[in-house]
Write a structure and sequence with these properties.
Strand order of the largest sheet: 6-5-4-1-12-13
CATH architecture: 4-Layer Sandwich
Strand content: 25-35%
Mean pLDDT: 83
Number of strands: 13
Distance between the termini: 25 Å
Helix content: 25-40%
Shape: globular
Largest sheet: 6 strands, mixed
Structural class: alpha/beta
CATH topology: Purple Acid Phosphatase, chain A, domain 2
Order of helices and strands: EHEEEHEHEEEHHHHEEEHEE
CATH class: Alpha Beta
Number of domains: 1
Amino acid sequence: MKALFLSDVHLKDPEGADYERLVLFFDRLRGRRNGGGETDAPIALDRLVIAGDFFDFWFSKGEAVYPGFRFIVERLASLGMEGVRISFCEGNHDFFLSDYFSRKPGFDVHPEWAEFDFEGLRVLASHGDTVDTGDLNYLALRRFLRNPRTRRLEQRLPRSFIWGLARLWSRMSREARGNSREAMLEAMNRYALEKIREGYDAVVLGHSHQPSLRRMWSGGRQGTFATLGDWTTQGSYLLFDDGRFTLKCFQP
């Protein structure tokens, strides 16, 4: 069993260096059906878990997606065709993903929490933006943006206007996060301890933009807690292989 976790890529435009780095990274990923090969040390995967904010903004209308994202979306679809099971956990910048990704390429989309069984290990993954329940301004904006009425309204608008509005809402979501990163990480740590005590073997979160991986004890149980960092500055990702988690950094 080999799985890869990735979050906080915040894709905006193909001209960005982070976009190019992601394309180079995806060129190394293969499904089991392709056998992996030996060229450029490809990673043959069973599952890819994207733990939120893969896109800096996301809105789709039917089968139309933002033009700058088409290549990456097609690359994800090709990985799915190679046998990689792809799961999206929605973030605070990309949501309403199921309208497109569950229907067209057939990915698993989780509005918040996703649970996996990796070789008998219970793994809980999420973007993690709701863990800090004290950030009331952000949570209020989150409820507004994810309201079904908001979704129905944006579906009636022209696509070019929707994409511009999505960029504005992306900035609003970023600015609404008032609490410090330290407070957020502390809330995530408490959450991971609680979930390990409940019986999970690993908790994987995004959102903090701080890569970390450690073992912790809670309620007489030992578990793994990982925060994924961000792709834009660190190129960080988490790999589960042969029953072990490893935090890695891709620097082409």
